[in-house]
Design goal:
Blueprint: H1 3-23, H2 27-38, H3 45-61, H4 68-91, H5 94-114, H6 122-139, H7 143-150, H8 155-179, H9 185-204, H10 214-236
Amino acid sequence: MSAEQLLIAAATVAFAAFVQGASGLGFALIVAPVLIMLQPELLPVCVLFLMLPLNAYVAWREKHAIDVRGVGWIGLGRFVGTFGGLAVLAFLSANALAIFVGASTIAAAVVTWFIPAFAPGILAFLAAGLITGITETATGIGGPPLALTLQHRPVAEMRATIAVCFLVGEVISLIMLFLLGKIQPMHLQATLQLLPALAVGMFASRFVHHRINARFMRWFVQAFAIVSGAVLLIKAI
């Protein structure tokens, strides 16, 4: 990247790290479109590398709030969903899948806004993990199912639990990309160049994360899911 491109990317990464550090969501949704314009070959490896320390930090910062039981069931569903995503790719075109996932994500966000508050159980966790595995493997977007499932839980629990789930998924994805020979020196170089910006945004979030209340968090989750779905639809169209 040129110096100008690096400056734009760094500012974007710092802002995205601040948003996800404070809310638990949003990093990839903010960074990916900018990197596509600047240097598309950095995706998705660079984003996955940057999210490792970010989600590890959020999980460590609020480790007392992690729903270990939820992480276990979501992880199981996600593992199965990964193979489901590969199977879906074999039968649906990328555009058809993006349209389906985008439309269903928006619909789910709208429906869950009006239904009564609920406490997710084993089936909800398994379903969230399964859908996340399918959508993230097939489209690269996996946050909305987790966020919608956990939206009525305490804010700290939601942030920490999602961070652990993301962390596990990112490790799996990077291992698969490495085995497929998709990780190149340029990815490591760009990641190292952007780490200082990531650290600035990540640590700045510690001053505001405790100020986010449940009402704001639920609104943010709904908006995040709708925007994620819209991004998929726009990409497909």
